[in-house]
Amino acid sequence: MAQLSSAASQAPPPAVPPHGCKGLDDVDIVPDEGVSVVTRQLLEGCIRRTVTEAAQVTQLIRQGADPRAVGGLRVRGTTDDPYWRYRCLSFAIDSPTDSLSFSAQSGAYGSVPVVLPQWSSRQLQHDILNALIDGGADVNAGGGGGSSTPIMVAIRAGNLTAVEVLLARQVDVRGFAVMRLPYVGGAAPSATREYEDATISVFRRLLQHDSTLAAERGGPGGDSLVNLAAMAPSSFFSQSFIDQYLTLITSHRADMTAADNRAIPPLQLAALRNSPCVAHWLCRHLTADNVNRGMTNQPNHTPLAVAADWLNRHIQQQQQQGEEHSRWIRQYKTIIGVLLRGGAAPSIARLPTATDQRRHRHLVLAEYATVLNELSEVVMSAINGALAPQRDHSLLLARLLPLAPHHDGAHPHPSPSNMAFGPHEAEAIGWKIGAFLHEPPAAVAAINQYLIGESLLRRRVGAAVGHFVKSAAHPDEQQQGGGGRDAIPAAGRQARQGDRPAAAVLRREGQPWCGAPPGGCA
User: Fold this and answer.
1) Cα 319 to the center of its chain, rounded Å
2) Which residue ranges are recorded for the region named Disordered (predicted)?
């Protein structure tokens, strides 16, 4: 009989599990009832990574081990049967980035993510997976209960090697939204950059295999992948990953506007489920009409109204469960800010005005004030950044010009002498020389990174900032009234010294520059 226990010392050392996760030493392996000794040996060898070559798997199967065996994991010291159960083939799939792959029972109704050791090499895992399949393991079978199929385990683990093996063995990838974001429990730590890169690579490979997978719908509500992303835990993946993921699936026909069979569009879902990263991406890619769109039979039920309603609910309940509701309050304030930066200000006028619901409007206006206060800092930073190279050269030239040797008249001429300048004259000349050396970068790009959606506010601020920078950088192209050549160096000094002329620059024709409805802008 093949012996694997003696190979334990050859297994790769287990990684230290991330905070909130369990490692192999923290859990017990619980095979299903009726599992034979040799089958248990195969199951545990795959879980503990004590199999050192594929031939051991083949030998155990010949001795009667069942490669279709099912088992679960249970936190050591507890006695409840595992809800999450996996087949041997799934247990043989590791996470190349030591991220969560499996779940272990931690009590009557709880579970925790588990990080199992890696195989010693990708090639060894490739060979072991093929040996299990050759021995009778079903590539499409889950373990029952709350388990996942091998392909879902491989996707969740970010394991491209396992995905390649399964695709080569004609695994079924249609009908259950394999392109949805991996499920993670609330206790899981944030994803690492390595895990996010691995997961995106897996999704790209799946679309290369079948480009129609992104258009699938899943879940009880018939949700698109964009809707499912909006409902996923909001704190696990980074904004960068969500941007890549949503761009990938929508480029393969995932619908970013279609409501599910409950008539809830994706942006409303992101507001409801408090998913600021998804809302951020949607606001950048949707039209202003869609950002302010209500639901089919509830035209005033806009994304902003949804977020305001839930913020108000948690504020009302804060005294009952302080810390939990405080966290939700912070998160809903964040998503309201994202929506307002994304062009949702017109929705303020559609918020309810009834006495018992007027609080929603006040809560949103308070967050809008925060957005506008932050915007002034963004505006000044954009102006300073655009003018910085020209400003630095003008300062240098202003110091050097008075020192330059100067000759008056033709030969015979007097001895060279330093040039003489009036107040700020050297600075003004240096600024104009700098205008020939530098073309200011598009300061509007910095504004667009903050005001992410199409809106009146973004157009006005962008136009004003662009005009201000152009006026400062190229004074000769502007009208000379109101200060002439001295006005532009003064503008450079003003920005350099931290003065804040943003509001004056942005007010045009007596209209409020914030883009809010009447009464909504200070």
Assistant:
1) 32
2) 1-24, 471-522
- What is the 3 state secondary structure string of 147-201? CCCHHHHHHHHCCHHHHHHHHHCCCCCCCCCCCCCCCCCCCCCCCCHHHHHHHHH
CATH code of residue 165: 1.25.40.20
Q: Establish if 513 belongs to a structural domain.
A: no
| Phi-psi category of residue 208: left, alpha or beta, with phi > 0 → left and psi -120 to 50 → alpha | alpha
Six token digits for residue 399: 């110091």
SS3 state at 312: helix
Q: What single-letter amino acid sits at 147?
A: S
Please identify, among 172, 202, 220, the residue that sits at the C-terminal boundary of a domain: 172
Q: What pTM was estimated for this model as a whole? A: 0.83
Beta bridge partners of 418: 405
Q: Which residues pair with 105 in a beta bridge?
A: 74, 111
CA distance 277 to 283: 10
Closest CA to 290 of 340, 256, 262, 244: 256
Rounded Cα distance between 181 and 254, Å, is 13
Token readout for 277 is 């990263």
Chain segment 285-302, per-residue pLDDT in tens: 999 999 999 998 889 999
Terminal CA-CA length for the chain: 81
Q: Which long-range contacts (CB under 8 A, 24 or more apart) does 416-421 make?
A: none
pLDDT in tens, 157-190: 999 999 999 999 999 999 888 999 998 766 677 8
Q: How many domains does the chain have?
A: 2
Strand (E) or helix (H) holding 27: strand 27-31
Q: Are the beta carbons of 35 and 41 closer than 8 angstroms?
A: no
Domain boundary among 143, 172, 201: 172
CB within 8 A of 354, min separation 6: which ones?
none
Short-list 460, 478, 473, 476, CA closest to 389: 473
CA angle 85, 88, 92 (to 5 degrees): 110
pLDDT band for position 427 (cuts 50, 70, 90): confident
DSSP 6-27: GGGGGSPPPPPPPTT-B-GGGE
pLDDT of residue 441: 66
Residue whose tokens read 């109204």: 305
Structure tokens at 81: 């049967």
Q: Which residue range(s) make up the domain with 479?
A: 373-401+426-506
Mean pLDDT of all residues in 358-378: 94
Whole-number Å distance between alpha carbons of 43 and 148: 17
Compute the 3-state secondary structure of the chain and give helix, strand, coil in percent, each to the nearest 5: 50, 5, 40
Q: How many helices (H) and strands (E) does the chain have?
A: 20, 9
